[in-house]
Amino acid sequence: VQLVESGGGLVQVGASLTLSCEDPRRMFTKYAMGWFRQAPGKEREFVAAINWSDGGTQYVDSVKGRFTISRDSGKNTIYLQMNNLKPEDTAVYYCAVSATITTMSHRPAGNYWGQGTQVTVSP
Fold first, then answer.
1. What angle do CA 42, 88, 99 make, to 5 degrees?
2. In the predicted model, is pLDDT for residue 82 greater than 90?
3. Where are the beta strands (DSSP E) in the chain?
4. CB-based burial of residue 70 (10 Å sphere; 0-12 exposed, 13-18 middle, 19+ buried)?
5. Which helix (H) or strand (E) holds 102?
6. How far is residue 52's CA from residue 77's CA, in Å, rounded to a whole number?
7. Taking CA atoms, which of 25, 67, 81, 89 is between 20 and 30 Å from 8?
8. Cα–Cα distance measured from residue 117 to residue 35, given in angstroms and rounded to the nearest whole number
């Protein structure tokens, strides 16, 4: 297993969840890591990403101000803190790795993927 995801679950509207993605073999610490999500019947979409090197981040507009991506270099782990969750945030969330944030978001077919974790927000 190259990436270990955790933290999904079932919550109510307005609640918070934190997703984690660990790189236990330290294979991707020179790359960009981030999160995509895929709701039933929809395409997988970019959510957020972070550069290991300088901590630079990028978010999709729909989560700005609610989600925060961060990294812990000592634990080789990135986190996605999700606050004020909405029903439209319901999806399978996938950890992703790419050379840069730009390639991750613009060329998702080339990403390395985690196994996914379900997030369900009930009204």
1. 60
2. yes
3. 4-6, 9-12, 17-22, 32-38, 45-51, 57-59, 67-72, 77-82, 91-98, 112-113, 117-122
4. middle
5. helix 101-106
6. 10
7. 25
8. 11
When pLDDT is cut at 50, 70 and 90, the band that residue 53 belongs to is confident
Task: List the structure tokens of 27.
Answer: 């294979």
**Residue 26 confidence class, pLDDT cut points 50, 70, 90:** confident
Query: Measuring CA to CA, which residue among 123, 49, 59, 67 is closest to residue 90?
Result: 123
Contact 13, 120 (CB under 8 A): no
For residues 33 and 93, the answer to whether their CB atoms sit within 8 Å is: no
* 8 A C-beta contact, residue 36 and residue 108: yes
Q: Which residue has the tokens 């390639």?
A: 103
